[in-house]
Design brief:
This protein is about 35% helix and about 30% strand. It has 2 domains: about 90 residues, no CATH class; about 130 residues, Gcn5-related N-acetyltransferase (GNAT) (Aminopeptidase, 3-Layer(aba) Sandwich), CATH 3.40.630. It is of the alpha+beta class. Pfam families: Acetyltransf_1.
Length: about 250
């Protein structure tokens, strides 16, 4: 499973607006945002990697005006972490990821007075992004046109975006999943505004996204939990622990 996950990540990066092949790495860059969570690289499984390759990666990111950053499944490239640390990189976090299949997925009830729906207009997309941002502690205001356009492209390219909305039209949270590749898709960005938490919305959104992935032919959904609370939510709906991924960057 580790190898399938890593291959899927690399394939997804190749679909970015500005994808770069840098030796044994694939970098997925987006000219519309400097966010390091969107602009990052990952190694091609099985490709040999040298210190010179890492130096070339740093140069490519620097020339693009982006922070050098990688995300990858650790078991697929065991020697890479030492090379990165030697080049001045710092580990951000090491997360265990969880996987779910159609046979393990549970479908919790959607809490009363809420509907789950995919945003169909840019106004709704902006509202979902705002809800996610606020849930993650970002109260900077309305999302940019680029962020809304990115969500629209995401949906048009086969990705899933799902939001939870109250019966009176307030978007309480949301999440998304990348377009399936090799039968796999990553679920991410699950977020619920503080005022709507502790009602089961996080689990309902995650299950709703995952069910849509399976209905569209995905074989495996995977995600990472940010803490004990979310870990329990994901396990309750059928996600089980699997391998580990490393997030590492250089200032």
């Amino acid at each position: 499973m580790d190898l399938r996950i890593q291959r899927s990540v690399v394939s997804h990066l190749r679909t970015r607006p500005k994808a770069l092949e840098i030796g044994p790495f694939v970098a997925g860059l987006d000219p519309d945002t400097e966010s390091p969570f969107i602009n990052y690289a990952s190694p091609v499984p099985g490709a040999p990697i040298t210190a010179a390759d890492v130096a070339a990666l740093v140069t490519a990111f620097t020339e693009a005006g982006r922070k050098p950053r990688l995300e990858y499944v650790t078991s697929c490239t065991l020697e890479l972490e030492a090379l990165l640390l030697g080049a001045g990189f710092t580990v951000e976090v090491r997360n265990q990821y969880l996987i779910c299949t159609p046979s393990t997925l549970g479908t919790p009830p959607v809490p009363a007075d809420f509907d789950l729906r995919e945003p169909e207009t840019d106004r709704d997309r902006a509202a979902v992004i705002t809800a996610q941002n606020e849930a993650f502690g970002d109260f900077s205001g309305d999302p940019s046109e680029d962020a809304v356009a990115r969500m629209r492209r995401h949906q048009e390219n086969g990705g899933v975006t799902l939001g939870a909305r109250t019966r009176d039209g307030v978007w309480a949270g949301g999440g998304q999943a990348v377009p399936p590749n090799d039968g796999l898709s990553e679920v991410a960005g699950i977020a619920v505004r503080e005022a709507f938490r502790r009602r089961g919305l996080g689990g309902a959104i995650t299950a709703g996204i995952t069910r849509r992935l399976f209905d569209r032919g995905a074989e495996v959904a995977w995600l990472e939990a940010s803490g004990d609370d979310s870990w329990r939510v994901y396990e309750r709906i059928g996600f089980v622990p699997s391998g580990y991924r490393l997030y590492i960057s250089r200032d």
